Fold this sequence. Notes:
The complex is a heterodimer of chains A (524) and B (299). With 524 residues, chain A is α/β, with parallel strands linked by helices. Chain A has helices spanning 15-22, 48-53, 60-75, 106-121, 141-149, 181-188, 311-319, 428-431, 435-448, 492-523; strands at 2-4, 32-34, 78-83, 86-91, 100-101, 104-105, 125-130, 137-138, 171-176, 192-197, 205-214, 221-230, 236-244, 247-256, 261-269, 275-280, 290-293, 301-305, 323-325, 334-338, 349-352, 365-367, 398-403, 406-412, 418-421, 456-460, 486-490. Helix content of chain A is 23%, strand content 28%.
Amino acid sequence: LIGFATPLWLAAFALVPLIRWLHRRGDSGPPIPVASVTLWRAARAPTRESARRSRTYDPAWIRRAAFVCALAIALSGPQIRHPATSVVVWIDHSLSMQAREGEATRLNLALDALDGALAERGPAHLTLRSLANPARVWRSLEEARRWLSAGTRAPEEPDPPPAAALPTTSEHWIVTDGADAALNAWMAHSPIARVIRVGNVSENAAVLAIGTRFSISAPGRIAVQVRLFNAGEEPVSRRVSLAAAGHELAATRIELPAGKITIWQTEVERPDTDMLVRLEPRDALPLDDELAIAQTQYRLRTVRVDAQCGERVRTAIDANPGLEIAADSVHPDIAFACGPAHGLEPVPAIVVEVPTDATAAPAAARWAWSLPRRVQPPIESAGARSAPLPQTVRAGDRVLLTIGGDAVIVRRAASPARIDVGLDLADPGLASRDEFVLLIADLAEALTDEKILDRIGSNERPLAASSIRPLLQEAMTTTPTVARGQRVETFTRQVLVVALLLIGWDLVRRFVRWSARSGSAAVR
Amino acid sequence: MAPPALSTALGLPTPSELKAFARACTKLLDESTARGVGVRSVRARAGAGVQYLGHRPYLPGDETRHIDWRRSGVGRRLVVRQFQLESSTDWQICVDVSSSMHTNAAAKWRQAARIAIACGYLLLEAGHRVGMLLYEDGVVAACPPGRGQTHFLSLLRLIAGHRPRSRRAGSALASCAERLRGMPSALVLSDFLSTERTRSDLHRMLGSCYDLQLIQLRDEGDATQSEHESAELRDVETGQTLVAALDAAALAAARRCLDEVTAALSGLCRSQCIAFSCADARAPWRILLYEHFRRARMR
């Protein structure tokens, strides 16, 4: 098929009559040179009609009109479109494609529809690609069906490539349910030749997120927040339950208004296993009716405390809702050692070297650590029994506290992690203050690089993933002819060369004429 | 004589043609008739003495020193003395190179070149000094009078090295008059289509030389055009334009007009005792030139 990329330029053809008109030579044609017009004085003047009939045009108009036409064609981007011989099918295997439409899932229905469409189209080189990961390629429909129907495959949300990156030499099809607005917007700007859309169900309620937090008021309990979303168009009622190891911890019935997010909060005993939130009864998309949170999100970190550290340290650890003193039989997460650091277990450790020097003169303490001001223990006014013990700082170490220019608390660049403390933590002047609990908590957090005191655990899924209502209009599923895959061969350059040759020819003619006139003038 | 390269450029006569023609025309150039008024010989040649020839009535423009007062008193009317011309004299050949000579494939120009070269050869062979002027709006090229074969080559180069401009080159014969001071004889080759100034130009030429001869180069193509319902005619010399219907009547009128120009020029020459010939641009130059010299001798 012959076509033009920007056919508007072809309107320049309308200039051709204008060019011819501009090259008219008057009513009498080109002047005829004669030796003397005196000889012709007796000739009668021509009539108006005969003058019009004998009107002539400068032949150069043909050359110039051809130049304008060639230029217009070149600017309009002449091209020949060859139909594509290969088909690339983009498969949407997001969560919404797992919605059940009767007995089958949308994905299965879509693959069946694709099978029929391919048979209808005829033979073509087929490539199937994942919309979630364009690098994932299946060479046949059966291979794609096997891979997608494997029970261990989790749905993946679409992450399509840039529309401009799609090769135009192939015909692009897409298999989707049209429930993803972002994907629909991508399709609108992509050279998609065919959209195979499946799915009609729109009602779906989903667990969007579950979050946990240690209860401050009741040690041993956790506060749970569940976020629920009704992606359908009608309000529904659901029973939401929280369970761990098959044992229901809490449950309630809740009304979910259409298109709204509803939050359910409860407080339960901290279980030792993963927790699962479930909505009942199940709907078209059962995969998003439940959501689990791993026990690691709300598990207490165990600390083994050296006996030399004193009761104050144990108390501070007990007071921290995210920490617990490890039993002897338990492998601890953190070790707290006071005195010589011998026989430490290979775990992250806080090692306190108790200073033995005489009482130190007061010196300015400087926290190099990002502790809030109100939390920083007033080291300089503590009336310490002994002077702080300076720590040597090696390459890669991070100094957390300096007193009088000496590093006192240093996080070592070691594995497992280790913090060396040159303060006497048993010093009543320091340990009796309320901020001491925070100091211990911050040391533990600095050691593990995670929040311990106010740890929030969560698991969530994107809101759009639960929306299964098809947004794509039915009309858009028809094949847009302009987007058919094709190999385009352009001729802009060739036509431009022709245009340049024409104008060059014209310029040469003009130059030759000009030089001939100049030559005759020179003879004079 | 004429180098072949130069001779063939304009279709000029070959040396053998010129020699043959010179032999045939020797008698015609034998100077024994009175062709000038009061011209005295400057040099005598054997067999052709210099002497008083006779009288004739005074004409306006004659020099008063040649008036024979005694004879005038007897006859009660002014008469001037005539002398036999010297056998060797100076000739100036004036060739029109205006744009009108360039029309119709420059047929008139080529014919003028042939005649000028043949004439120059002939006169040089007869022992005269010959010069040449090419003129349009003014004299554009000139060869001072001279003698001998070397000088003939100069004339030949002058003609062969020139080509009339295709347009905007007028025809001012009067511009040659200044160069003719003291020249006894002049031959003008032109189409004489600038009718409005022909009379005045000839009078100026007559005032500058004693013997004037004209050869009008006529081309029927000047009055011939293919028929057009409407055509714009442009005068190649003046640039004047005329829009006309070129039908049979217009062509006939143009031919008539061309005849009238020739007739008027012929009448003017007759009245002024000027030797005149009308030469067709495509006719053989030998016949034209022979007839012209014969006519000039019989004048």
